[in-house]
């Protein structure tokens, strides 16, 4: 049985005498479901190199190790698709996703996805991981995307998202000018009942909050920086349309504007920040504005 590199934790003085189970839940935030899964493995939870039951008491300085069995993405075909890797360690893979590629195989997209390229990348390194994107980007959206290498990492960052501890910052080019230079859009979103692949603003939808700040204004367009509190499908695109300024190049929610054409929506995930599940330190990853969006900006400034 093969295992990933263990998640580690050193018992702090204030935790001296705690029950191991309490440390796992309160300090490592391990869910009950994941803990049950870990306990079934041969190594499970180890303290100072010894397999232990979770009802023992721990002492200051004890080394706790969480061992997770290796998994594979057995239904994803490895394909040699170029990746722009921003960062990689034993727990995370951070990529700058190019526009025009789907993140995960779906009906109609079994190949040529980011997942196919990532699985190939790991195969070349003789590593086995299940493909676990922590969040999604639309096919035509570029930028920073995080992929977890084990279920613990996925759970931890997902929890941070739920508690609004993940920083997701985007840059978009909009048609027209927003009514205010900065503000917040707090309107609900749900599926369009007539076109199920689209989303609409509706009072009966799911909560969605987007903050924005105008960076530059041009004659017929604007460059805007956006921060998400929620991560609804097409959220930025729908919210900007709601304000009367849809994204340049957006085939579904856009409109004609006076400026250079763009063959995708002008949206880029520029920054992603969160607390690393192993080091527990805040980390931030950045992806520079892609060339197609830079080109549009250059033309708009003429």
Automatic annotation (TrEMBL):
Q: Where is the active site?
A: 138
Question: Catalysed reaction(s)?
Answer: a uridine in RNA = a pseudouridine in RNA
The residues covered by the Pseudouridine synthase RsuA/RluA-like domain are: 92-242
Q: Which SUPFAM superfamilies match?
A: Pseudouridine synthase
Q: Where does the source fall among the domains of life?
A: Bacteria
RNA-binding in keyword set: yes
Give the molecular function GO annotations. Answer: catalytic activity, acting on RNA; pseudouridine synthase activity; RNA binding
GO biological process terms, alphabetically, are:
enzyme-directed rRNA pseudouridine synthesis
- Keyword check for RNA-binding: yes
- EC class name: isomerase
Identify the InterPro entries for this entry: PsdUridine_synth_cat_dom_sf (IPR020103), PsdUridine_synth_RluC/D (IPR006225), PsdUridine_synth_RsuA/RluA (IPR006145), RluA_PseudoU_synthase (IPR050188)
Which EC number(s) does UniProt give? Answer: 5.4.99.-
Q: Which residues form a coiled coil?
A: none
* Any Pfam family: PseudoU_synth_2
Keywords assigned by UniProt? Isomerase, RNA-binding
What is the annotated role of this protein in its UniProt record? Responsible for synthesis of pseudouridine from uracil.
Belongs to which family? Answer: Belongs to the pseudouridine synthase RluA family.
Q: What is this protein called?
A: Pseudouridine synthase
């Amino acid at each position: 049985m093969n295992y990933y590199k263990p998640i580690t934790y050193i018992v702090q003085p204030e935790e001296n005498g705690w029950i191991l189970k309490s440390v796992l839940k309160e300090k490592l935030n391990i869910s009950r479901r994941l803990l049950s899964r870990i306990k079934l493995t041969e190594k499970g939870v180890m303290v100072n190199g010894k397999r232990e039951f979770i009802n023992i008491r721990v002492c200051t300085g004890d080394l706790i190790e969480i061992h997770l069995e290796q998994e594979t993405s057995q239904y994803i075909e490895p394909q040699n698709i170029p990746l722009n890797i921003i960062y990689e360690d034993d727990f995370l893979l951070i990529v700058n996703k190019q526009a025009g590629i789907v993140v995960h195989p779906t009906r109609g997209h079994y190949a040529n996805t980011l997942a196919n390229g990532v699985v190939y990348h790991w195969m070349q390194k003789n590593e086995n991981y299940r493909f676990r994107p922590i969040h999604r980007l639309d096919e035509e959206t570029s930028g920073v995307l995080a992929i977890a290498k084990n279920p613990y990492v996925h759970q931890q960052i997902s929890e941070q998202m739920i508690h609004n501890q993940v920083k997701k910052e985007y840059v978009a080019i909009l048609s027209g000018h927003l009514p205010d230079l900065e503000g917040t859009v707090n309107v609900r979103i749900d599926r369009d009942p007539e076109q199920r692949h689209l989303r609409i603003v509706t009072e009966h939808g799911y909560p969605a909050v987007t903050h924005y700040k105008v960076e530059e204004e041009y004659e017929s367009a604007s460059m805007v920086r956006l921060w998400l509190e929620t991560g609804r499908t097409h959220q930025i695109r729908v919210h900007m349309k709601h304000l009367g300024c849809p994204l340049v190049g957006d085939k579904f929610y856009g409109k004609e504007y006076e400026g250079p054409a763009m063959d995708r929506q002008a949206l880029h995930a520029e920054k992603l920040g969160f607390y690393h599940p192993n080091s527990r330190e805040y980390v931030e990853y950045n992806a520079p504005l892609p060339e197609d969006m830079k080109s549009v900006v250059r033309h708009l400034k003429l």
